[in-house]
Amino acid sequence: MRLRPTPRGWALGITGLVLLGLGAGLESLDLLRIAALALLCVGGAATMVAWRDPARGRNRIDVTRVAAPNPVHAGSVVGVDVHIRARDAGSRTRLAGLRFAEQAATELSAGRPLKAKVTRERAHVTVSYTVEAARRGRWPIGPLVVTRTDVFATMATTTTLGDDAEIRVWPAVRTLPAPTDVLVGEPDRVALGARSPSTDDASLRDYREGDDLRRVHWSSSARRGALMVRSDERAGMRPVSVLMDLPLRGGHAMEWTVSTAASMALAMLDAGHPVRILDGGHVSGLTTPFLHARTDSARSALLDRTIDLEPTRSAAQAEHQLVAAAHMLDSTEAGGEIVLALLGGTGTAGREALAHVADTAQCWAMVRTDGGTPSQSREAEHTLHALRRAGWRAVGVTSGEDQVDAWLRMLGDAR
Asked: Which CATH superfamily is domain 180-202+234-412 in?
């Protein structure tokens, strides 16, 4: 709580002190009485305002905040309603004289004051406003800032009510054309609609009590030291891993990379494939399971995976994470997996690790060729050529390129 005099309070307090000095110097009892009255008024107002702090005591005021939609894609508008309710007659009295202000992260408010509509009822006040989610991430709104003055407007107190809330912002995504006719080979199309389980059309998950032991994938269980079972999917709908090599710096290139990868993942999910997103920093098959189109929360779960992605700290770290992800993909038991990658230029170790992935998976890649320096651009070109020699279907892209165009160019590269 912050307690401070208003301009009127400052004037009254200074006047009281001046009169106190004059009264003492002139030995005027009347001036001393007036001075004491002025100072007593200021002191009493401070005590009363502090005692009636709406955030403390038995007559506290309850605050709830509702933001919808939440989560939301970057560039979308979110409506926020803050409900301030009085519990009893005492808190209703406190509620009557409050002025409200709401806080929000710069990524939601663009640094401008929020323009809110305040609706007052006897025991309920609603503060309504909108924010625009400018950038991917988790951004706070609140807590509510309330200001109250005494009846003579000599003292004011500012305090916060309620907890803050969080708005989760997904990356902006584009709807990409259905890729099934290009990415699914002829043997897979023949099998579409079949229900027989196989390692080619199943992803792995932890064993749960009651699972059929015939579904246990023994080789994976032995390697990981825990029972793993196959999760049925339609035969022929191969699992898809979307691999991201994140830029070294944030900004436009980072957001374009994440947005494009999320768009590709959603396109494959909508086509019926089990999908997972890998960024190199989280490469465990246990922590990044495949998500299935028949699960209602699959789209949200995929997008949630992208909220907290951050740029890599160094080129060495980026290559280390990429190599780890490539080794995990190379050792997967699901033969014929589809790998969609969005990469930057990588070193020799990264290129060699990615080349082995194409031995067991159907691999497609977009390689960012707009490096910040000539050496980075040359490294991207080397990566592009190395992937093509290893059997990847790879195309060069630039950050900010239309995502649909880049997607179609990548698909058309194999025709």
From this structure: von Willebrand factor, type A domain (3.40.50.410)
